[in-house]
Amino acid sequence: MAREPWVDQDVCISCGLCTDNVPEVFRFADNGKAECYDQTGASEEEIQNDAIDVCPVSCIHWR
Ligand code: SF4
Question: Start and end of every 4Fe-4S ferredoxin-type domain (predicted)?
Fold first, then answer.
């Protein structure tokens, strides 16, 4: 099974980079913090490069 990105919402500052760059995978939850809703929406490489590596507070992790 593919790895799943997970957003530590206690740390997320709702900057919108991950939701803008990879909207097939990340969206804002009702609490205003980002969440992964479909880990199959993009390749692991795209998730790594366009979301995890650019998150300003490094709060997206693989699990
Ligand atoms: S890039 Fe990081 S801080 Fe910005 S919305 Fe996504 S998870 Fe939150």
Answer: 3-31
Number of structural domains (the chain) is 1
CA of 25 to the centre of ligand 1 (A): 12
Query: What tokens appear for 27 in the block?
Result: 């969206």
Q: Give the CATH number of the domain where residue 38 resides.
A: 3.30.70.20
Within 6 Å (CB) of ligand 1, which residues are found? Answer: 7, 12-19, 34, 55-57, 59-60
Single pTM value for the model = 0.95
CA 27 to centroid of ligand 1, rounded, Å: 10
pLDDT given at position 1? 57
Residue 36 domain boundaries: 5-62
